[in-house]
Amino acid sequence: MHISEGILSGSVLLAGWAGSAAGIAIGLRKTDTSRIVRTALLSSAFFLASLVNVKVGPSSTHLSLLAPMGLILGWGVFPAVFTALLLQAMLFHFGGLLVLGVNTFIMGTASLSVYLLFGKTVRESSNRAVVAGGSFFAGGVAVILGAGLAGLCLGLTDSNFLNAAKLLVIAHVPLAVIEGAVTSFMVMWLKRSAPEFLS
Question: What angle do CA 49, 51, 55 make, to 5 degrees?
Fold first, then answer.
């Protein structure tokens, strides 16, 4: 879901930075010292998972682990995503520094959304089928929402990007199924082995 440098308009870039700055500020305020190691661990996992990029027009598709990050970190996902994307931009030239705000906003918002939609069910339910199904849908929704937000940013920049935006969403459908399965596996394992991670 990385949008490449030099594509988006100035207004979209500024809006992305404003949204990301707000998310990071709230995330830092809500992340206490006992959760810093957890945040760093998930930021590292996101960094590694999203290194394998497949170009899709002016963007790319990759494994992201956005749903597990959101379900575990809540608002803390914004600083975690920002840190990982900053390192990717500086070390591997994925995305870019100007578009960093937009990319952080896209992935942070998708991740936070599944926390708000599915977090309570996944954390509190003792029914294994409900937890597995909820976490599977969380994984899929995070990917499709992220792709949709990336497409929206492209469409707001130039209507000529609308076809590329549609292709971007369609290309992420198989990945949504994979992410759903990975998220379900991770959540079920955490519920059994380390339930405090989901607290």
Answer: 115
Give residue-wise pLDDT tens across range 9-34.
Answer: 899 999 999 999 999 999 999 988 88
Against a cut of 0.85, is the pTM above it? yes
Question: Helix, strand or coil for residue 60?
Answer: strand
Locate 117 and state its tokens.
């939609």
pLDDT digits (tens, 9 = 90+) for 59-104: 556 778 999 999 999 999 999 999 999 998 898 887 789 999 999 9
Dihedral of the alpha carbons of 102, 104, 105, 111, in degrees to the nearest 10: 150
Q: What is the full DSSP assignment across 51-117?
A: TS-EEETTEEE----HHHHHHHHGGGHHHHHHHHHHHHHHHH--S-STTHHHHHHHHHHHHHHHHHH
* Close Cβ partners of 130 (under 8 Å, ≥ 6 residues apart): 121
User: How far is Cα 165 from Cα 199, in angstroms, rounded to an integer?
Assistant: 36
What are the structure tokens assigned to 14, written together? 């500024």
Given a contact cutoff of 8 angstroms between Cβ atoms, the answer to whether 79 and 71 are in contact is: no
Q: Who has greater pLDDT, 194 or 66? A: 66
pLDDT at 154 (0 to 100): 87
- What is the rounded distance in angstroms from the CA atom of residue 55 to the CA atom of residue 125? 38
Q: How far apart are CA 135 and CA 184, in angstroms?
A: 5
